[in-house]
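tool_call: predict_structure(chain=1)
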Amino acid sequence: MRRYKTTAAIFALFMLFAVQACKKSRSDIGKVFFDETKNRIFKKVEAETFAQVFKQTLEEKRGSLRNPKLISAFYETNDYDPVLMMKHMPEENVKAFAERLGKAEEHGLAPEMFDAAHISSLVNKVYDKKAIKSVDEAYRTIAELELATANSLIDYSNALQYGIISPRRIYARYFTETKRPDSVSMSQVWKVDDLKTFLDSIQPKAEGYQTLQKALVSGVTAPGMTAEETKRILQVNLERLRWKNREDAKKMVVVNIPDFRLDVLENGKSVLNMKVCVGEGREVDPTQLREYDENDLKKDRPFSRETPQLASLIHSVQVNPVWNIPKSIATNEISKHAAADPYYLANQGIDVYQNGERIEDPELIDWSDPEAGTKYSFKQRPGDANALGKIKFLFKNGSSVYLHDTPAKAAFSLANRAVSHGCVRVEKPLELAKALFGNGAKYETIAREMQNEGNPEAKDIALPEKVPVHLTYKTAWADEGGKVQFRKDVYGLDVVLYSYLSKMQEKRKA
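tool_result:
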């Protein structure tokens, strides 16, 4: 029993010293500010009184904070101590932060989004010996600066590391997993020991990002565009590059929809590229834009043939594929061709099914019936006329799209190759197969079967190792020579993104 009392006494003594140590640390608030500014008013600052003022300020400003629950919980847990000021007020680190916010336009972002002017004003006030004339004003200024810095540091850190827009909120056909900031990542700002080093660390390091930054800052004007149009394109593409939506692999396939191009990348370098045809575009009216929730299950906008943005893994190919014709194409195209030409189905190698049974004489069907396309299902047999050509490359996705060959080779000579129903037609399918499979028995089988002119049959061949595939949308990027390339906004997705960036920036300015 005596031993227990002794242990308890030691623990109580330890806690007393711990509390006193904590209070001593907090009592240094005034000293930190005096040492930095030489304003004697700060010598009168007392920790307990400051905590009360800070708590009141936090309640007053709560409605203007972007993450009020997170910020309030942190300071409540930390006894309303000005953690950021205690760490970063020395050596003008907070002043450097204010200056960095003022240069947010280098990233295509408005400084007003991060309260740059307000923070700069507070910093100047702190350093101006004549500006703060009473201890009450000192308390209030420190509290406002701590809170504004926490709010803006979280926002600025999120913006540079994750982007300010969640793409799944604004695009209906965006199916690429994209990391967004959470409470754990946002809380890291209070753990930062060296603010200048941290700010340097979150500057995107990718060469392509920095090239677009330089183009924006230097006022580059793209051919055929005005300076303002070019600025907007650079702004939206910088935002896209901030999205955490891709982890580079040793080998990967990347399609850039506006460039109508596919690249096979190995260790980040293109080892094979080719033209592609993508889904048809359509006019976008920015006044009719609709916001999509990240957890919404909507898969498409009505009547859209746009190729979706997605990430997946190519797992296999089908040589001499069978085309299961979608209902929309059957209704809008196949049945109409059959009504105009009784031999159309036979010439195209298309079989007609009803309730899973193949119909022997589809010529007897009244294809002029507007409902004909919905009453039957259609499959196109392997062969030269097959719309998928001699091979399709398969990867799991919810949009039923894939890469495939095509008999319609003339489309590759078009400048605007947004001509498909949503899948991606590739110019050099056999070369793509070789890049994925390499030399060996599987590739030899693919090459042989693609040349089968007799009685081609569908054959599935699995890749020995799945290869990542990304269908992306970039209208400005740095090529391998460091030159900025610009392309037309074929789907109007720049318009969508810019409108949301502008709305968010205006909202935060207010």
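agent: The chain has a mean pLDDT of 90. Proceeding to next step.
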